[in-house]
Write a structure and sequence with these properties.
Distance between the termini: 17 Å
Organism: Kordia antarctica
Radius of gyration: 22 Å
Protein name: Glutathionylspermidine synthase pre-ATP-grasp-like domain-containing protein
Largest sheet: 8 strands, mixed
Length: 450
């Protein structure tokens, strides 16, 4: 049965066993304390993809973020005013700083959110920087392997990427390449303003310290993490320091940062810190860039292979402005197209999080849709994207009955490294169109089959 989340491994993995719950017990003793009581439900069944699906996810998650970084030069010709007008409400100071950061061309961690359609995977949005969820799912593997021993006994056949470990390796490599390969002790600074009590901060610090130690041991190095306000970092003696400790990387864990401090900016531009959440990253995750990438690909501004990659994975996407566009061989103004073919489109804001300000035409009343178009035209920070219908896959609902679900796939890319994939899924009868953990979707661990 290939129409299940187990795909072609259904017969091997599925057992008529009513004792298997629909969700993992996140209070299990198999979990370390930091993940106990995880705030989102996690499916007790794995999603198992084949090699073809893995290769498509790998291609998209590695290539597209790299192509995204070429937008300032290819589309805006590095013109600060045009960049400032488009992304920063005309603020050329921020535009200049952002371009300076972006032109350093640093690989940063990214996650593509995709849907799996009858025409393959399609990119819905691109998340970049440190505040991207889903990397932590390797920590829940002991729970799912306990319920499905085949995942442990057939290791040659089933594999789940250790995304968090791959990310830490990537981070260490970026520090060595861009900051220092000589220092034997690395300092990682975590910005997280939502952790108010010392116990929570110590738990986070201990967890990251262990991850860092595990990966640095292979290099005969040591490392420590620190959690505090970014204002506590000082650029002194040509190094970024926290309480007289040298800091090699700064990570933003909870979208806590609106503006980087002058000290961190100086450290970045002088190559004294690896900072993946710099101002250049901030405008690269703008959803309008999907439209710009497609425009560049249609104009054949990339290599032939890269143009094909963009048009293969990114569905028709355009800025919601009162201009003429071509859709399926015919010309329309954008508002005319959206009004005439409402059920074929999604309108979303450029910088929304957790599925907010995402409007799916087929789930909106006509009057509501007209108001959304009007608002989008006024604010000029929205995109329209062709609705990419997710194929239905059978999965257990929260009541433990297998029924059709729709999935959103989060594929991780760390420079040239494919970091694996994680899913969120919603049962069709409860889905209002937006599939997001904050809106009640169940999360799932993905295994690759060979």
């Amino acid at each position: 049965m290939e129409n299940t989340i187990l795909f072609d491994k259904y017969k091997e993995v599925f057992k008529e066993d009513n004792t298997i719950p629909s969700l993992l017990d996140t209070n299990s003793d198999l979990l370390i304390d930091i993940f106990k009581g995880f705030k989102y439900p996690i499916s007790s069944w794995p999603v198992i993809i084949n090699n073809k699906m893995k290769e498509e996810l790998k291609e998209a998650s590695i290539k597209i973020p790299k192509l995204l970084q070429k937008i300032p030069s290819l589309y805006f010709e590095n013109d600060v005013k045009r960049i400032a007008d488009f992304y920063f409400n005309g603020d050329q100071t921020i535009g200049q700083f952002s371009l300076m950061c972006q032109n350093k061309n640093l690989d940063v961690s990214s996650r593509l959110d995709l849907t799996y359609t009858n025409d393959g995977f399609k990119v819905l949005e691109i998340n970049m920087g440190s505040s991207i969820g889903g990397m932590e799912f390797q920590n829940f593997e002991p729970l799912i392997k306990e319920l499905h021993p085949i995942l442990s006994t057939n290791k040659e056949q089933f594999d789940s990427k250790k995304t968090q470990s791959l990310y830490i390796k990537f981070l260490i490599n970026k520090i060595e390449a861009h900051v220092s390969s000589q220092d034997n002790e690395l300092g990682i600074f975590l910005v997280n303003t939502s952790l108010g009590d010392a116990a929570s901060k110590n738990m986070i610090k201990s967890f990251f310290d262990q991850l860092l130690e595990k990966e640095l041991t292979h290099k005969n190095k040591k490392g420590s993490t620190y959690i505090d306000s970014i204002s506590e970092l000082k650029f002194t003696n040509n190094t970024l320091q926290y309480q007289n400790k040298k800091i090699h990387a700064v990570l933003i864990l909870d979208y806590a940062l609106n503006n980087i401090t002058p000290d961190v900016f100086r450290a970045l531009v002088t190559d004294q810190v690896y900072f993946p959440d710099h101002l250049g990253t901030a405008f690269m995750r703008d959803k309008r860039n999907l439209a710009l990438l497609r425009r560049l690909a249609v104009a054949e501004k990339f290599s032939e292979d890269d143009n094909k990659t963009i048009l293969k994975y990114i569905p028709w996407t355009e800025l919601v402005v009162n201009e003429q566009v071509k859709y399926q061989g015919e010309f329309y103004t954008v508002p005319e197209l959206l009004a005439k073919k409402q059920e074929q489109f999604v309108i979303k804001i450029a910088d929304g999080l957790q599925g907010k300000d995402v409007f799916i035409g087929k789930f909106c009343k006509q009057e509501e849709w007209a108001k959304i178009i009007e608002k989008a035209l006024q604010e000029k920070t929205y995109v329209a994207q062709e609705f990419s219908e997710s194929i239905d896959l059978l999965a257990p609902n929260k009541a433990n009955n297998w029924e059709p679900h729709k999935l959103v796939w989060g594929a991780f890319g760390f420079g040239d490294i494919y970091g694996g994939v994680w899913v969120r899924m919603s049962a069709n009868n409860t889905d209002a169109g937006v599939i997001n953990s904050a809106n009640g979707a169940v999360e799932g661990i993905v295994y690759e089959s060979y």
